[in-house]
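Retro notes
What went well: the complex prediction finally ran end to end.
Inputs used:
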Amino acid sequence: MSKHVLIAEDDTALADLMAKVLSKYNIRVTITYNGKETVEALEKEVPDLLLLDILMPVLDGHGVMRFIREKQLECPVIVLSNLSDKETKDKCKEMKAQNYFVKNDLDDDDLWPAIEGYLR
Amino acid sequence: MSKITHSPPDGIALKLKVLAKEKEVVRRKLVVTAREKEVVRCKLVMTAKKLRLKARQLAATAREKEAVRRKLVVTAREKEVVRRKLLVTANELRMSRKTLEKKVLERTKDLEKVRAKDEAILASIGEGLVATDKNGRVLFVNKACERLLGWKEGETQGKLLLKVIPMSDSTGKTIPESERLITKTLKDRSTTTTTTTMYYKRKDGTSFPVAITVAPIFIGKELIGAVKVFRDITKEKEIEKARSEFMSIASHQLRTPLTAIRWVLSSLKRENLTEDQAKLVKTAHETSMNMASTIRRMLMISHLEEDGMEPELEQVILQKELEKISRLHDAHRQRNGLELALECPQDLMVRTDKQLLIEILDNLLSNALKYTPRGGKVRMSVTKEKESIRIDVADTGYGIPQEEQKRIPEKFFRASNVASPVEAGTGIGLYMVYNIVRLIGGTISFISQENKGTTFTLLFPS
């Protein structure tokens, strides 16, 4: 069965772009545009990888990670956020996020290999 | 006198007899007279004695009188001297009284001038000013205070300051009297200042944010009251809010679309493109990366200036990061025909803030490449010293004019020899570098010679 990646990103352009890039890996991609939708999707099916934004409407990325911990879901999380402050980073580390990328600081050529690592 | 009897025969004898008798009488009379004379003489002698005595007494008295007179003369003389002296003194006194009066008048005028000046100064202060006695009762308020708090002139006089100006925190909770600055100042006899934003309530019940300082007033060692100065910081709060809003816009509204653009370009780069297409996409991606780093720097400077930055330590493999940084400048370097040499011990690890170190080295390398003419060489070398890491970034570029070298850490400073002819620059890179170096506990120095080159040396704890 092909791998399943869940993209939680409220910026539709970014979300669609990620989906488009990832589509060539022969995997299934689901996009959710806010935290609530993400939680609902997680309840239905636990993906092989969650690409998670932090600043999202209704429920933010922290809320999604709290949900994962409460339900003890086995799901690797890569955080992709615009926030670069230490507090947010620490909070995500505490919540066991595998990777934290600041969208703006990210060496773009690093992003795709990092994601690919979870899809092998 | 005896009776004379006449008898003729015995005429002569009789006569003689009578004569004798008469003589006897006379004699007796003479004796008597002599006795009387003797008495008189005695009396005279007595009188003479008395007189002599008297004369002696008189003489003594006269002498005494003379002495007294002499003394009087002396006294009179002395009196005269004293009188003269008194006259002089009186004159002097008159003079000094006049001078004093004049001086007092001058002083009074001066004091009035000073008072008027002080009052004018107090009245003109833009900050609110309140002086209280040692019990916290209002003694004086300036115009700004009355204006800011909406009280009429003199209305607050003698009232308790705590009652006149209620204070609350940002949640609207009233600050208890024991927590008020004026209470603390009068109790601890020391100056107090607000550290968080506090709000003052006006007479009409509305509030405004204030910054307050309260200082004790002493005469000698005795505390006689306190003086409070406060400032309406509504404008500052607005600016602060606008600034943080702008930062939020910068980080979100600018970053998000830029991220999308970059990701599109970076994924495009991985497609099978023709050589021309690949070149264009590469350039577009590079440009968008530069823009992203400009935004990052803007935010970083803002953080640095807010003192809100703390280094986040992690293990950094230096060679890997150096190669990454140099790759960012590859395109520019090749375009300008510059040679770059990297020298770094393999697997050298250092515990530091990765992002900040990258920022420093990226800036230094960027400058070295930017300010070195075509055909030049740039060398970036890492050496491990005893307890620190040394990184040199050396170029064969334009150099920094001797007289401008000490201005290098200034914000917006650009050396005059490169300001116009060479590429655009903001003068913010090295300002940032110097600040970041301090943040990671390192030091930075440089040697430079015009048209020979510059070497920056970074030392930081390993």
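What we learned: Chain B has a mean pLDDT of 87.
What to try next: split runs per interface for comparison.
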